[in-house]
Design brief:
Elements lengths: L6 E4 L3 E5 L5 E6 L2 E4 L4 E4 L3 H18 L6 E6 L2 E5 L2 E2 L2 E8 L3 H5 L7 E11 L11 H6 L5 H24 L2 E8 L1 E3 L5 E3 L8 E5 L13 H4 L5 H15 L1
Antiparallel strand pairs: 1-2, 2-3, 3-7, 4-5, 6-7, 8-12, 9-10, 9-11, 11-14, 12-13
Helix pairs in contact: 1-6
The chain binds thymidine-5'-phosphate and aspartic acid.
Length: 242
C-alpha cells in the first residue's frame, strides 16, 4: 500500500487506511488466517485477493437488492474503497444449519437443518474472547438502542434470504455466516466488514452422497487442507454465474 494513506486500524485479516475524503476508507485484505481467537495462525498466499474479489461481488449483489453496505468499489485485486463507518462492536451470526460452536455448546446434532434461522449475537472483544451476549446485556452496556438492534436483526434476516439463493444458484449451501454493522456519518446503519469464505460456512452441493465438503475457513480451522483451492472454486463459480 503506498504511503499517501495512513493506517488507522489493523485487524486479523484486514488493514484499514484513511482516504483523502474523510468519509471514505481504503481496506486491504491480508493473506493471514486466524482461528479460535488467533490461537491458530497461518498465511495463505492469495487469500486476501480471493476474499476481496468475492466480497466485492457479494456486496454488489446485496446493494442491487437494496441492502445498505459500506462497499464503494474495488481499487485493486486485494484493495477496496468503502464508506467510513463507526463499527458496532457486535458480531451477528446467522445459522441455517447447526454446525460449529452451536453443536459444541448445545445438544443439537451437527448438520441439523434449522426450522427457522437462528441468530446468535457475540460481543466483538478479543480480550473477552468474543462472548455470546444477550439483548439485555447489550442494553445494559448501551451498545445501541433496541430499535437499532431490531433493524440489524431484520437486515441480517433479509441478507440471509438474498445470500441463500445466491449461493444455491452456484451449488453451495449457506450453513451460517457472521456479519458486522456500523454507522456512517449520517447515522445510517450499513453492513460492513467482508462477506467471504472466512466468515461464511459454505458446503458444496455438487456431492453425490451426504459427505460434507467445506469450501470455507473450516478447511483451516479443522486442518482439512486445500483452503486456496476452495476459495478459488467459490470465486470461479461466482464469476461464471454473474
Ligand atoms: P461458530 O460456529 O464458530 O460460532 O461460527 C459461526 C459462523 O461465524 C461461521 O460462519 C464462522 C463465523 N465466524 C467468524 O466470522 N468470526 C469468528 O470469530 C467466529 C467465531 C465465527
Ligand atoms: N475470526 C476468528 C479468529 O480471530 C476465528 C474464526 O473465524 O473462527 O481467530
Amino acid at each position: 500500500m503506498n504511503n499517501k494513506y495512513e493506517l488507522i486500524y489493523e485487524g486479523k485479516a484486514k488493514k484499514v487506511f484513511s482516504h483523502s475524503e474523510s468519509d471514505k476508507v481504503i481496506i486491504e485484505f491480508k493473506d493471514d488466517a486466524t482461528a479460535f481467537n488467533a490461537l491458530k495462525k497461518a498465511k495463505f498466499e492469495g487469500k486476501g485477493k480471493l476474499n476481496c474479489l468475492i466480497s466485492a461481488k457479494i456486496f454488489e449483489h446485496l446493494i442491487k437488492n437494496n441492502i445498505p453496505t459500506h462497499f464503494i468499489e474495488l481499487k485493486n485485486e486485494n484493495i477496496m474503497m468503502a464508506k467510513k463507518i463507526k463499527v458496532i462492536p457486535l458480531e451477528i451470526v446467522l445459522r441455517n444449519t447447526a454446525y460449529g460452536s452451536l453443536c459444541k455448546q448445545t445438544t443439537i446434532k451437527s448438520g441439523t437443518v434449522l426450522a427457522k434461522p437462528l441468530i446468535d449475537i457475540y460481543l466483538k472483544n478479543d480480550e473477552l474472547n468474543d462472548p455470546l451476549i444477550t439483548k439485555d446485556r447489550i442494553e445494559l452496556m448501551k451498545i445501541l438502542s433496541s430499535k437499532d438492534l431490531d433493524s440489524i436483526i431484520n437486515l441480517t434476516l433479509k441478507i440471509n434470504g438474498i445470500l441463500k439463493s445466491f449461493f444455491k444458484n452456484i451449488q453451495l449451501q449457506l450453513v451460517d455466516f457472521k456479519l458486522e454493522f456500523g454507522y456512517d456519518s449520517k447515522n445510517n446503519i450499513l453492513l460492513g466488514d467482508e462477506i467471504s469464505p472466512d466468515n461464511c460456512r459454505l458446503w458444496d452441493l455438487n456431492q453425490k452422497n451426504d459427505t460434507i465438503v467445506s469450501l470455507d475457513k473450516d478447511r483451516f480451522r479443522n486442518d482439512l487442507g486445500g483452503l486456496i483451492e476452495a476459495y478459488s472454486e467459490i470465486n470461479r463459480r461466482i464469476n461464471n454465474f454473474i
